[in-house]
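Something for you to look into today, if you have time. What I am after is a single protein written out in full by you. I want to see for myself how the chain folds. Could you add the entry underneath, on a fresh line?
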Amino acid sequence: MRVVAAMSGGVDSAVAAARMLDAGHDVVGVHLALSQSAATLRESARGCCTIEDAGDARRVADVLGIPFYVWDMAERFKRDVVDDFTREYAAGRTPNPCLRCNEKIKFAALLDKAVALGFDAVATGHYAQVVETADGRRELHRAVDAAKDQSYVLGVLTAEQLSRSFFPLGDTVKPRVREEAAERGFYVAKKPDSHDICFIQDGDTRGWLTRALGAAPGEIVDTDGTVVGSHEGAFAYTVGQRRGLGLSRPAADGEPRYVVEVRPEANQVVVGTADLLGVDAITGDHARWCGPAPEGVVRVGAQVRAHGEEYPATAWADGDTVEVRLERRIRGVAPGQSVVLYDGTRVVGSATISAARLERSA
């Protein structure tokens, strides 16, 4: 099988490419150039896609003896991921750019280009498993290494995309991956993992958004409308946030305050007590199914954060919309986040949260 190995320049994608080669596939390494102004050297472990990363990926390809190319997708990454991220925050929502990148870049733009060039599949260093059933269907499952599991950010993949995807690290824990990289003589064996939002290298999301959207001073209000503070842009806040509020007036009851609503039209941030954050019903749109869409009401596990807890729930689909009813309340669910549904370890699908509310009083 002819396979494109997506090589970020990190240890995971390096070992994934090596394992595909060991399995007998015809492998070509591809590094995606996603930054329109890639720095020569990375400033921290947060970023990726720098010139240095491309060089690291090339060195691994040389060790493996496979062809290596750099594909420039910076313009599409900016349009489909960075600009989408900015628009979502401006609209008072909290997006997950990793899901959008997997959907629009790695398993749309990259996979589509690979197939157009005559390749059969794409392999990445994601920690997830593809399991083939007795009838030949391919299912997406959680990784063996629960601490590194990335099935949540892959919940946007369709059955067709899964049929052309390989995740060779899904059955391995991260320490063993580093050991294997060292045994293979890869320079990147001890390279730090990139984390958080790759295009915000200093980790300051609020500062990045302020530079992108401009400062927009406004009010922070309590649920009764009382002004309790000020902000430089409502876009920098998310439902469930407690830190960094800078409230000028303490709560009369002495209880901590959290963001309970962001009102972009009024440029207001609303704060309230923790009990106002509890929800047990979620509506999602932009449904994506990793196999057949569920029929009727089904029991699932629902996860709303990349490394968050899975909650027992029921769900049903209505076209592009998904309704999820949680068996117990959870806090801090923000519009724009993704809810990913599981059946055991299998990923059923995902949706972008458009609303969350409390339906049961007890």
The chain is about 25% helix and 30% strand.
